Amino acid sequence: MAGSRETRKLAGEDSKRLFTPAGKTKRRPEAIADRMKEYIRSEGLAPGDRLPQELVLIDRFKAAKGTVREAMKALETQGLVFTRSGPGGGAFVAKPSAQHAMELLSTHFFFDQPSLSDIYAIRKILEPEVATLLAGRVTGEQLALLESTIRLYDHPPGDLEEQYHQRVAELDFHSQLAQFCPNPLLGFLCGLMHNLLRELPAARRIYADESAVSREEGLSFQYRLMAALKDGRAEDARRIAAEHMAFAEAYMLARAEAIAGAITAD
Questions:
Q1: How far is Cα 153 from Cα 166, in angstroms, rounded to an integer?
Q2: What's the distance, CA 31 to chain centroid?
Q3: What is the pLDDT of residue 232?
Q4: Among 92-96, 98-102, 177-181, 255-259, which is the least confidently predicted range?
Q5: 234-265 and 116-134 are packed helices; what angle lies between their axes, rounded to 10 degrees?
Q6: In the CATH hierarchy, which top-level class contains the domain 27-93?
Q7: How far apart are CA 27 and CA 11, in angstroms?
Q8: What residues contact residue 184 under an 8 Å CB cut-off, 6+ apart?
C-alpha cells in the first residue's frame, strides 16, 4: 500500500511539471517525435504533405518499429499528424486546430480543476487587453456575428433548456472576441479560459440554475463594448471590458456560494 501511495504521489508530481528540466533525458519515442517536428520544419512540409514511409523513418532515426510507431502516435494525438489507410494511404502532416489544443489542455485539469476565482483572475487581466487591441479593428462582418450571438439571449428564455443555452451563448460572445484578436496567443489564452468555464462543474451548475439573472446589465456591458470597438475608442473598450469582468466574477462567485449553501441545507 505504501508503495502504491508513493507511486501515485510521484505520478501526480510529474503530471504538474510544466517543463522538462535541462539535462533530463527524454524517452526515446518523445525524442523521435521532437526530431520529426524538426524534420517537418526543415523540409518545409505543409498540412496535407506526406511523411516518409515507416521503414524510412526506422532507418533515419535508427529506432525499432515500435518506438517509431509510438512517436507517430504521439504526434497524431497532438494533432500534427494524421494517417490514412488503403491505396494512397500513409502518414500526413496535419494542421492542429485551436479547439483540439484546448481540449487537450482542458483534460490536463480534469482531476485538479481551477476554481472560478482562478479563471476570473486571468480573465480580468487578459480580456481588457483583447478589447483594447480590437478597438477600431473589428469588421462589419465581425460585428454582425457578435450581434447575431447576442440575439440568442437578449430575450427571456422559454424554458430551462433555453436558459442554459443562453448563458453559454453569453460566453460565446467573449470567445468570438478572442477569436478576432490580432494577437493569436492572447486570443488563445482567453479562449482556453472560456473552455475551462464551459467544462467546470461549478459553472455548469450556475448556468443551469433557475434563479433570475441580471441579463439587462450583462447586455448593457456588451452593447457598450461593441460601440467602443466600432468607434475605435480603445481606452473605453478596456474600461468597459474590465468592469464587465469584475461584474461577471462577482455574480458567478455569489451564485456559486448560494448554490453550495442550498445543497448543504438539503
A1: 5
A2: 26
A3: 97
A4: 98-102
A5: 160
A6: mainly alpha
A7: 16
A8: none
DSSP 159: S
Sole residue written with cell 501515485: 8
Whether 186 and 134 have beta carbons less than 8 Å apart is answered as: no
Distance CA 117, CA 252 (A): 9
Cβ-contact 131, 229 below 8 angstroms: yes
Task: Tell me, rounded to whole angstroms, the distance of Cα 234 from its chain centroid.
Answer: 25
Q: Which fold has domain 100-265?
A: Four Helix Bundle (Hemerythrin (Met), subunit A) (1.20.120)
Q: Residue ranges of the domains in the chain? A: 27-93, 100-265
The size of the chain, in residues, is: 266
Cell (9 digits) for 198: 464551459
pLDDT at 264 over 80: no
The share of the chain scoring above pLDDT 90, in percent, equals 70
Question: 193 with 122: CB under 8 angstroms?
Answer: yes
What are 201-245's pLDDT values in tens digits?
Answer: 999 999 988 775 667 888 999 999 999 999 999 999 999 999 999
Dist CA 195 CA 174 (whole Å): 11
